[in-house]
Amino acid sequence: xxxxxxxxxxxxxxxxxxxxxxxxxxxxxxxxxxxxxxxxxxxxxxxxxxxxxxxxxxxxxxxxxxxxxxxxxxxxxxxxxxxxxxxxxxxxxxxxxxxxxxxxxxxxxxxxxxxxxxxxxxxxxxxxxxxxxxxxxxxxxxxxxxxxxxxxxxxxxxxxxxxxxxxxxxxxxxxxxxxxxxxxxxxxxxxxxxxxxxxxxxxxxxxxxxxxxxxxxxxxxxxxxxxxxxxxxxxxxxxxxxxxxxxxxxxxxxxxxxxxxxxxxxxxxxxxxxxxxxxxxxxxxxxxxxxxxxxxxxxxxxxxxxxxxxxxxxxxxxxxxxxxxxxxxxxxxxxxxxxxxxxxxxxxxxxx
Length: 352
What we know:
Blueprint: E1 27-28, H1 40-49, H2 62-72, E2 79-82, H3 84-96, E3 103-106, H4 112-119, E4 124-127, E5 145-150, H5 162-170, E6 175-180, E7 201-206, E8 219-223, H6 225-238, H7 245-255, H8 258-281, E9 285-286, E10 293-297, H9 303-312, E11 315-316, E12 318-319, E13 328-332, H10 336-349
Parallel strand pairs: 1-11, 3-4, 3-5, 5-6, 6-7
Antiparallel strand pairs: 2-8, 7-8, 9-10, 10-13, 12-13
Helix pairs in contact: 1-7, 2-7, 3-4, 3-6, 8-10
């Protein structure tokens, strides 16, 4: 660090991204990317948009908002496209938190939440998950500021029902409740239909997972128009042209090919279930997942040892060092060929 770094940032603990190797010698199952390429229409639309890169992108993302609104069953004014769902999450921390309005989230969840709290200099309250890694709804009652819940949660993969989430939203009339639905397309229930019932609800989603566009960095938020006015104020005060032209076009192309997305999601869910059955038979503990990954541990072999040995075998998974989850590894669900390889390798680790 230089001597010029602000004292406010000196203790910042940045988010640690999953490893991105520069060669192709690994089976890469560590960052929850899709094993499928983007839709052909997404690629074609993006290529066509390259011809106009001399011009600024549409700051209102007009066509993209209209397409997203149609798919989500809301109005265009209730949608805000962003540079990945991380940006809309950060906007929420910026808009709805301050010294007296903290951010509340689980102790085991998406690692960017504490980073957003720190960098925006707002207090945070971490609520411990129960022993079974589920959220205790009693911990999320009567807050003010921001309540952030990943549903399904990461890295556990566990999802709450819409009714369960609605009870939490209803129990926090003085707080904005953010439901982070990055993985919702893999079998969970979305809270989007509730935005017309609750003026304190913000739902965030992404093109990174189900729509095979992690590299494009495109997400969006859905909320009532009053919350959207707040979030747009933050957007236009920081980065009006937050979605570039090629990414915007790729998003429009992906939405024009929803059948491709749905078929890929079905395949991933099938591969997830096959892998869960195989690993359970090998003696592994596998948490119930509604995502494109599995959270897995062995009763006698440490998570770090499994991670290290898989890496030596050319398979990358994600290992976490936090005390409660250090014996687990998060394994992205890839193609069936990739899952067969990881099951075979984990069989060797289990002594099968």
